Amino acid sequence: MKWLYRIIFVPALLIASPYYLWRMIKRGGYRKDFSQRLGFFPLLPPKDSSRRRLWIQAVSVGEIQAIGPLLRGLKNSGKTEVVLTTTTSTGYRLARELYAELCLKIGLFPIDFWPCSHIAWGRIQPDAVVLTEGELWPEHLGHAERRHVPALLINARLSDKSFRRHQKFNWFTKSLVQKFSWIGAGSEDDANRLENVGASANRIEVTGNLKFDVPSTGPLSHAEKSKLRESLGFGQASSTVVILGSSTWEGEETLLLETVKQLRNSGIDTRLLLVPRHAERCEALMKEIRLSGLSYHQRSVGGTLAPANTIIHLADTTGELRTLTPAADLAFCGKSLSPHEGGQTPIDCAASGVPLVYGPGMSNFREICRGLEAVGAATKALDATSAKESLMALAKDEKKRLQQSQAAVTWHQKNRGATERTLQKLLS
Fold first, then answer.
1. How far is C-alpha 39 from the chain's CA centre?
2. Distance (Å, rounded) from C-alpha 100 to C-alpha 102?
3. Where are the beta strands (DSSP E) in 8-118?
4. Residue 118 CB coordination number (10 Å)
5. Nearest-angstrom CA–CA distance, 117 and 36
6. Contact 359, 383 (CB under 8 A)
7. Could you give the CA distance from residue 227 to residue 163 in angstroms, rounded to a whole number?
8. Fewer CB atoms inside 10 Å of the end CB: C or N, the chain?
9. 176-206 as b/e, with b when 16 or more CB fall inside 10 Å?
């Protein structure tokens, strides 16, 4: 099995390299410490016999943010030293900004090809390896098995797309998931899916989603919310309605711009806080925003303080969504309208008490959305037209927004605790 993977890897990498080269150029930041991707991880101090060395891999920004409380718990225990790696340049930058004091070293995950993985393993020498969500790296897991190093999967989940792919290649996936000594699943659905593709049921535990335990900045007090909104250029008027476009994808911003214009034409002072999922799309977005005729502020260019009477605040920066979310009165959750599928996390909005509207494509958060809808904290729209109608209705109904806000906060609080359950396992 491993030799088949190694034989296929090289031509597959060559075929995919133009796409990844394009992404590297477009998104930037990939040059920094590139040698680590080839396995040349910085040399570490000698291992401390009193502490287990954990190698934790979190692929991107979302996963990096989710493990923050876990890293603090590990640091406070005094029983471990953490080597944290990530895959994307934005995740790498954010990890170094947030967790430098919590980790022995922060670096880049090596390309999952035998020579690269072999070099990195020789330099890091972990006592246990921890992967997050749906990461299944054959070479990495193979090294763990050969070296008799425990491998754990935390916050484990399989999206619809991943699940279908793993089912097609079940013979291969089974050989990977069985290498984990323990799997902490994010939900019952995820646990069932992992068992379906070959994971041993007695090694799976439903721990819950780590993202519920990430510290939120909201709900804010009236004074705090007013101050934040004023910094965004939205003023302090209680009659102003702020709509958040949370991690939006192409086409969804058009819907939100149209919604804001219609609401404003109907006499409601509506503002739009737009946080696109990919900041590199800002040039195309700015063209669309200019054509709207509405006053705007681009955060990456104009800074954090926007001029008064800003109608559209484009937050094309990285890692600020959670901080900005409490400024909103309601939100649209991105990647949920056709042709997009999967959805972006609705958890931050729930934590901040922001009522949610999203389209039908929230398959990556199906169980979470069911919970939100059950308590009346979110509205699932059938398509773009009904999403706009739901947003407009909610913008006009302050009483309903307040009810949904309270329901969201209560629901979020009841779902916390995954970090503590995961931490107990990592320290056992």
1. 26
2. 6
3. 52-57, 80-86, 105-108
4. 14
5. 10
6. yes
7. 44
8. C
9. bbebbebbbbbbebbbebbbebbbeeebbeb
Looking at residue 279, its pLDDT comes to: 85
> What's the burial of 387, exposed, middle or buried (CB within 10 Å: 0-12/13-18/19+)?
buried
Give pTM, 2 decimals: 0.87
pLDDT number for residue 24? 61
Give the 3-state secondary structure of residue 297. strand
135 neighbors 57 (Cβ within 8 angstroms)? yes
Give the model's confidence band at 7: pLDDT under 50 very low, under 70 low, under 90 confident, else very high. low
Closest CA to 250 of 312, 338, 311, 314: 338
Residue type, 140: H
* Domains of the chain (ranges, CATH numbers): 26-214+416-427 (3.40.50.11720), 222-414 (3.40.50.2000)
Q: Which has the closest alpha carbon to 427: 279, 419, 365?
A: 419
3 state SS of 57? strand
8 Å CB contact between 348 and 326: no
Please tell me what DSSP assigns to residue 323.
H
Amino acid at 342: G
Residues of the chain above pLDDT 90, percent: 85
Q: Which of 281, 316, 319, 298 has its CA nearest to residue 90? A: 319
Cross-strand bridge partners of residue 241? 270
- Token pair 């990430």 is at which residue? 214
128 C-beta neighbours (distance < 10 Å), count: 18
**Pairwise CA distance, residues 45 & 160, whole Å:** 42
Query: Measured between alpha carbons, how far is 329 from 229 in angstroms, rounded to an integer?
Result: 11
User: What distance in Å separates the CA atoms of residue 173 and residue 12, rounded to the nearest whole number?
Assistant: 18
* Rounded Cα distance, 127 and 284, in Å: 47
**Distance from C-alpha of 24 to C-alpha of 317, rounded to nearest angstrom:** 18
